[in-house]
Amino acid sequence: MPVRYEDKTIKTEQKEQPEDTKKVVGWTNEITREFQTQGYVILRNFIPKEIINMAMDTWKTIEHKQEWNDTFFEIEDDIIHDSPKESLRKSQGCHTFPPAVALHRWMRDNLSNVLDMNLVETYAYTRKYERGAYLKAHSDRPSCEVSATICLNYKSDDNTPWKIWVQKDKNYVRLARGDGQDRFFEECQNIPHHQRKGVPITLEVGDVLLYQGPNAVHWRDTFLGDYSYHMFLHFVNHDGSLNHFDKFNKKYYGFENEGSANNRGALVFAYDGRKSRYHSNDEQESYFHEAMEFWNGWSAGEHDWFNPEEYVNNYAHIENAELSEREKRKHDESVSNESLNFFKSAYCFTDSQRNKSYEDWISKNVKDKVVIDLGAGSGILCYLAVKYGAKKVYALERRGELIDRMKGILGDNVEYIHADLLETELPECDIYLHEWLTSEFWNEKRFLRDRFYQEGDKELEVGQILDLVEYATKNNFIDKLYPNMVELSDINGESITEWADIELESHSKYSKKFLEDYHSNLKLNSIYRNKVMNKEIKWEGHIKDLKHHEVKNYLGWKVSFDGEHSLSNHSPISHWGLRHGEKI
Q1: Is there a contact between 300 and 306 (Cβ–Cβ < 8 Å)?
Q2: 107 and 43 in contact (C-beta within 8 Å)?
Q3: Closest to 265 (Cα-Cα) out of 284, 301, 291, 300
Q4: Residue 218 CB-half CA count within 13 A
């Protein structure tokens, strides 16, 4: 299915011919435009777990029997020419591995929903890396015009995927000529990390990186781990500029009947010169060899007149067009509504102190446990529980759009419960996480009404912290509810709210990764700067004994996990503040 019309929110314009004075207006989606301009795009949790499992079950069955494995795979002496000596023979690879052929077709069909291009399969390559493997900085040939790299399974020393670096600060396709590949290594990879211009990308199982293989330099540093299973699925854009160069389409070689609907000849790179996806790479047609002979000749210094920038991933003629006032209003309304719906329930995940308290406790307590987040919102607490080895994780959330967002991040690693906590029978768990906290503490309804909702809005029908305590007590999990310790104070003070930089480096390990991988567009966070002139503690104890307390000034609260990793509405800088509602 092609990209939906309603998802094409980016207005573009281009000349059909260089000599044209009038530009043709069109529309595309954000992912496509990002790929065209940035040179790569990341699709998180794109491949369902069951698809990954089928591919890996087939692969490991073949791998289990050495005779079968040797039929498909061969030890690779040197992946990229002149790799470090200690990295040689640390991988095995296979062209046209049957599970990869199947996944290649699946990928093409499903990319059509998100990438506004007419992709044609070229070839699939499969590789298993072992400890010490290394991928030298390089760029690719035209058959890799649109490349997808995926990781299917891994075991690394730090339990994180092997990073791939991508550098597309300029168009490298023309620079690959002559000793270009050697220069890529020296200028992009073989330098201190702080001097690199490339971007390190972490791909979990199910994630997909789409990148411009010939135009972007890419590499991996030394792999520290036992194994990492990968597939590389390559495509060309049939309706792109590659077809404009005669030596790159079959019509030039006399294949008149293999043109597309627009009467262009089919690309010689389709199926990498093979008759179909099922043919092996030793069955490539003569026209493909002629085209590659030309390409290799140019790479070696011949054909000075040829400029590959004009044909390989050439989007220079496409410009973003200015929206009309009507289009701006429609776009702004759409973006505003989307952001508002998200941040109504999930904006607290950008707070570094809040995340650190949760992550510090989760990292020491969830391994091999069954965990549920009672109001998962952005999904960050579930994400942390998964990362730190929880046996099973449930995400309870009453807002459907937030569950949809979580599925895009967490995939099948979490079981989702779309329901209201106070009306739901929960599964038996070892740990019940909550974050039913507002600056006001007692009255979340007033907070929501003042900030986001109108009187009578169904979203005002939400529980308060005392409702949670009552429900947990009634259903016998109050002693498994965390955070579990509470301090209440009467505070004379003030709070000022402002927008501040998220300061990614201040976030704890996986909280930082969550923001980097899934919310890199967010730069600011709403914070309170709190000033306490006087504080009188009124009550402190276990959450199961929590009762309503009145104060003369402002209610100050602090919650913690067994007295550690505290959260508060009156720390100097906090996600919560004192002047958030009325005095009680």
Answers
A1: no
A2: no
A3: 291
A4: 21
Tokens at 295, concatenated: 């390409």
The domain containing residue 45 runs over which residues?
38-310
Contact criterion met (CB below 8 Å) for 207 and 98:
no
- Total number of domains constituting the chain: 2
Q: Quick one: average pLDDT of 258-268? A: 57
Rounded to whole angstroms, how far apart are CA atoms 312 and 144?
10
Residue 584 lies in a domain: no
Distances (CA, A) of 236 to 11, 34, 122, 147, 525: 24, 17, 7, 8, 40
Co-location of 451 and 518 in the same domain: yes
Q: Which of 277, 310, 343 is the last residue of a domain?
A: 310
**Burial tier of 236 (Cβ tally within 10 Å: 0-12, 13-18, 19+):** buried
Q: How far apart are CA 277 and CA 295, in angstroms?
A: 23
And the tokens for 234?
């390559």
Question: For residue 464, which amino acid is it?
Answer: Q
Position 328 pLDDT exceeds 60: yes
For residue 256, the Cα-to-chain-centroid distance in whole angstroms is: 43
For tokens 């291009």, name the residue.
117
CATH of the domain at 538: 3.40.50.150
Are 7 and 116 in contact, with CB atoms under 8 Å apart?
no
Whole-number Cα distances in Å, 116 to 24, 177, 248, 264, 322: 17, 30, 22, 19, 20
Residue 12: which of 317, 321, 313, 240 has the closest Cα? 321
- Angle ∠(180,182,184) on CA atoms, nearest 5: 70
- Look at residues 27, 35, 34 and name the one whose alpha carbon lies nearest to residue 4: 27
pTM: 0.65
Residue 560 one-letter amino acid: S
The C-alpha angle 486, 490, 496, rounded to 5 degrees, equals 95
The more confidently predicted of residues 441 and 311 is 311
Residue 462 has pLDDT above 50, yes or no: no
What DSSP designation does 259 have? Answer: B
Q: What is the pLDDT of residues 52-87, one digit of tens each?
A: 999 999 999 999 999 999 999 999 998 888 888 998
Q: How far apart are CA 11 and CA 16, in angstroms?
A: 16
Cα–Cα dist 285/85, whole Å: 35
Q: Which amino acid is at 510?
A: Y
